[in-house]
Amino acid sequence: MAMNILTPQQLNQKAPAVFATEPDTQVSERYGFVPTIEVVDALQNEGWYPVRALQTNVRDPERQSIARHMIRFRQDPDRQISVGDAVAELVLTNSHDRTSAYQLDLGLFRLVCSNGMVTPTSDLGGIRVRHGKHVVESILEGSLNLQAQTPRIAESVEAFRSTLVSNQESQLFARAALALRYGEDWQTQSPVEPEALLQARRREDAEPSLWKLFNRVQENLIKGGLSGRSVSGRATKTRAIASVSEDVRLNRALWQLTGEFLELKDQSTLKTTPLVQDARQMASLI
Q1: Residue 179 and residue 186 in contact, taking contact as beta carbons nearer than 8 Å
Q2: Coil, helix or strand for 161?
Q3: 228 phi and psi, to 5 degrees?
Q4: Cα 62 to Cα 87: distance, rounded to the nearest angstrom
Q5: Which residues contact 223 (CB under 8 A, 6 or more apart)?
Q6: Model-level pTM?
């Protein structure tokens, strides 16, 4: 498939912290500053090209150059690894303000909806690299390790695609997803009901498989735009996830939730517990 590789100008517009020339003034002398653009260039030299970028909004203009940012990389069309109706990506996150190390995750880009996911490849998530002089080498090594995990992710996707879910099970999944997004008090904090997360934005996503259920819920939570009511009762719409850390956190949690959901369904556990109670239990698994 064709893809739009971000130019340096576009990358700077979407995530200026990628081009930071120095870290936060509060970091210690032991902090080994490596500009994110050096990692971007190294990955690009290995055939991974930046296709999307996001940066957390900060109120202080002076902190724009050190804020947390995320870049998604994809291989050229001839080398792209297909995973169901998605292709594999690498997801790099970083900041220069001491709030995070370099983090590299395996991601999926779903073609039909232009929607990106982050898939944990182990109990610990992706590859974490502390700021220091060996960042670039460690990231490149990590990219090879993550790429080798793609077949295992493909197996999970196939299991999700082949698993049918009932309307009641879909409701349970949506309740657990709202608990992940808004916390245990989601019933008072969420502006929307679980049914809103189950809406299909395209006809082909309405099929009752666990894969399509996951995609509907993930897309509706990440992209927002769902009509609902605020805590005070006013009409409102849910907001898109604009925070880099929340984007990655919620994506990882939803993926793990889907795996736990499949395991519980295989054990027939889902049928023996009230929906609200089980949603809280499933949310606590993440």
Answers
A1: yes
A2: helix
A3: -165, -160
A4: 37
A5: 115, 240
A6: 0.83
